[in-house]
Amino acid sequence: MKYDFTSILDRRGKDAIAVDAPEMEGIFGSDYFGQAKLKPGFDRIPMWVADMNFPTVPTIPEAIIERAKHPAYGYFAPRDEYFDEIIRWHEKRNGVTGLKREHIGYENGVLGGVISALNVLCSKGDSVLLHSPTYIGFTGSIGGNGYNMVLSPLVQDEEGIWRMDYEDMEKKIVENHIHAAVFCSPHNPTGRVWEREEMEKMMEIYRKYDVYVVCDEIWSDLILNDNRHIPLQSISEDARNRTVAVYAPSKTFNLAGLIGSYHIVYNRWLRERMDKESSLSHYNSMNMLSMYALIGAYKPEGYEWVDELCQVLSGNINFACDFIREHFKGVRVSKPQGTYMLLLDCEEWCRANGVSIGELQVKGLEVGVLWQDGRPFHSEYGIRMNLALPFSRVKEAFERLDRYVFNGTQE
Ligand SMILES: Cc1ncc(COP(=O)(O)O)c(C=O)c1O
C-alpha cells in the first residue's frame, strides 16, 4: 500500500470525541461512556462515532498549510477549482455526466442540507418517510425541526440482506399524506449499498404519490468488496428532478472537524428555494481552509487513497463478520456492503444469557471497546461498531469481546 493504514494514531488530546468523550462531561457520548469504568490493564479502542482512526491523505494538510502561509484570510468566494474538482470526482467515481457548477451548492453539514431541503418541501408538522434502523442524526434533526418521522422498517431477506418493504412504504405514504422522504444511500447503520432495481422500484412509488426525496449520499465513497454505488439522481430523468442529493468529503477523508458539505440539485425550482432557505440563518457559509481541504482531497492522490482505504475497510469488515459468525453464538450481523459500520443484533445472545442489552454494552466498555448503543438508531438489541481502525486494533477488540464479553467472564 502506498498510504499508511496500519500505524496506530494517538488521537488523545487532539480534539477527538472518539477517544476523549469518556473524560469530557456533557459532551455527546459522555453519559453513555460514564456508565462503565475501564478495568485496569485495558486501553480504549474507539469504535463508535463515525470518524476514522487513520491519517488522511497528505494532499489535504498540504493544501491547507500552503494557503495558511499567506497571512490574510478575508472575505472570499469559492475558487473555480472547488467546483471543477467536485464535478470531476462525481464523473470519475460514479460516472455522473451533465453535472455543472450551478447544480452544486455549499452546505455546512449534510444534516443542515437535509433540513433546508425539508423546509422547502414540507410545511410545519408534515410527515416525512424514513427507513429504520435510522441514523441517529436524522432522528435528532428531523424531529427537532418539527417534522413527524414515519418509519418504514427495512426487513432482512433469507440471506440476511436488508431490503425495503415497498408495500409498507406505499401504505404509510398514503395514510400520512407524505410528500417528502429521506433516503440514506449507502444506508447507515445497516451498510446497505442499494441496487439499481431497488431504487427504481422506490422511485416509481415516489413518482406515483408525488414524493420528493432528500438523498443523503455522505457514505457513497466508502464502498466495500465488489459492491458499487449508484447515485439516485442517475436512475432516471424523474429521479434527477425529484431528488436533492447531499455529499461531503468529511466521511470519506476524515474531515468532520473542518466542516463542509455540498448539495447537488438539478431541479432549478428546488435548488433556488433551497439556496434561499439555507441562506436565512446567515450561518451557512464556507470556511476558506475547508475549501482547500476539499481541493486537496479531490486531487489524484485522493482517488488512490480512497481506493486503498476501501480495501482496508473491506478487510476489516470481512474479518469481523467471519469472527462473529464463528465465535459469537446468538449475535447476528448482516455484512455491510458500504460504510465502515457494523450493526450487531444481540437479541438471541441477551435472551440466552439473561443479560440486558444495556448490561452487555457496559461489559464491552469496561474492557475498552467503545462501541455504541443501537437503540437510538431504532435497533432494540443493536450495537453499532465503527471498524475504521488499523486491522491490529480491530482484531484486538474482537479478541477482547470473545474472551471477556460474549464467551467469558471478566475477572
Ligand atoms: C448518514 C449520515 N448523514 C449525515 C452525517 C453527518 O453529516 P454532517 O456532519 O455533515 O451533518 C452522518 C455522520 O455520521 C451520517 O452518517
Can you put this structure into words, describing what you see?
This protein has 411 residues and is of the alpha/beta class. Helices cover 42% and strands 14% of the residues. It has helices at residues 17-20, 30-34, 59-68, 80-94, 110-121, 136-144, 166-175, 196-208, 237-242, 249-253, 268-279, 288-297, 300-327, 347-353, 357-366, 391-406; strands at 45-46, 104-107, 127-132, 148-153, 155-156, 162-163, 180-184, 212-216, 243-247, 261-264, 332-333, 341-345, 369-370, 372-373, 382-386. The strands form five sheets. Strands 2-10-9-8-7 form a five-stranded mixed sheet. Helix 6 links the parallel strand 3 and strand 4 (148-153). The protein is globular, with a radius of gyration of 21 Å. The model has no long low-confidence stretch (mean pLDDT 96). The chain binds pyridoxal-5'-phosphate (PLP). Pyridoxal-5'-phosphate binds at residues 50, 109-111, 135, 137, 184, 188, 216, 218, 248, 250, 256, 261. Residues 50, 109-111, 135, 137, 184, 188, 216, 218, 248, 250, 256, 261 line the site of pyridoxal-5'-phosphate.
